[in-house]
Amino acid sequence: MSIKDNLLTIKNSLPAQVKLIAVSKTYPASAVDEAYKAGQRIFGENKVQEMCEKHEQLPADIEWHLIGHLQSNKVKYMAPFVAMIHSVDSLKLLQEINKQAQKNNRVIKCLLQIYIASEETKFGLDKEECKALLNSIEFKGMNNIEIVGLMGMATNTDNTAQIKSEFASLRTLFTEIKSNFNHKNIQLTELSMGMSSDYKIAIKEGSTMIRVGSSIFGARQYS
Ligand SMILES: *Cc1c(COP(=O)(O)O)cnc(C)c1O
């Protein structure tokens, strides 16, 4: 099937509250353009440089979401345009995002990435670190970021019961923070969970944003 067919098939299957982030990492700008022409406007990248290059080549009304592990020294390159950062995993990184957002006179929407998998290779805060961050004085003083939700990646496994319970644990944390944390820079609405292999499970567990790459663009080739 074509990119357009894949995209529309997935889009048409989604409940109204679920947004599709088309993950275009490693695919050329021409593939993004094909999805754009089929109506897709939100794209996710996991590297800042690749996102900046595509941002320059492609239509200005695309919403770019950074979904991959982020180093503080890269924030400045995307701060003028990035629509959302899904992968915030430290106070230090958030401080840099706040600083660069301020320089650009804007508020950058962020998700805290939470470690829910049983794999050493995945990034993220644990639940206590997440709450400690949101309770910190440094966080409360940030005026140029807004925490709009949480992101998590489940273990890469065929065990659907395990995936389901990892997503459910993220939803539980989301609900807890939503009802117990009140501050002007916390507006929890988004739960970013689910990729090509597990987005159907994630939606059943309350996802509002799925990040899907290979099911739209085809198998990735890493160079
Ligand atoms: C690559 C990536 C995805 C999409 O993965 P697919 O299996 O291609 O759908 C989602 N989230 C993150 C953080 C990624 O790096």
Produce the secondary structure layout.
Blueprint: H1 3-13, E1 19-23, H2 29-37, E2 42-45, H3 48-57, E3 63-66, H4 75-78, E4 84-88, H5 91-103, E5 108-114, H6 127-135, H7 137-140, E6 145-152, H8 160-180, E7 186-193, H9 199-204, E8 209-212, H10 214-217
The protein binds pyridoxal-5'-phosphate.
Distance between the termini: 24 Å
What is the typical, i.e. mean, pLDDT?
96
Radius of gyration (Å): 17 Å
Q: Tell me the structural class.
A: alpha/beta
Q: Which stretches of 5+ consecutive residues score pLDDT under 50?
A: none
Largest sheet: 8 strands, parallel
Across the major sheet, the strand order is 7-6-5-4-3-2-1-8
Percentage of residues assigned to helices: 40-55%
CATH architecture: Alpha-Beta Barrel
Residues in β-strands, percent: 15-25%
Bound molecules: pyridoxal-5'-phosphate
- At the fold tier of CATH, the topology name is TIM Barrel
Shape designation: globular
Helix count equals: 10
| Overall strand count | 8
Q: CATH homologous superfamily - what is it?
A: Alanine racemase
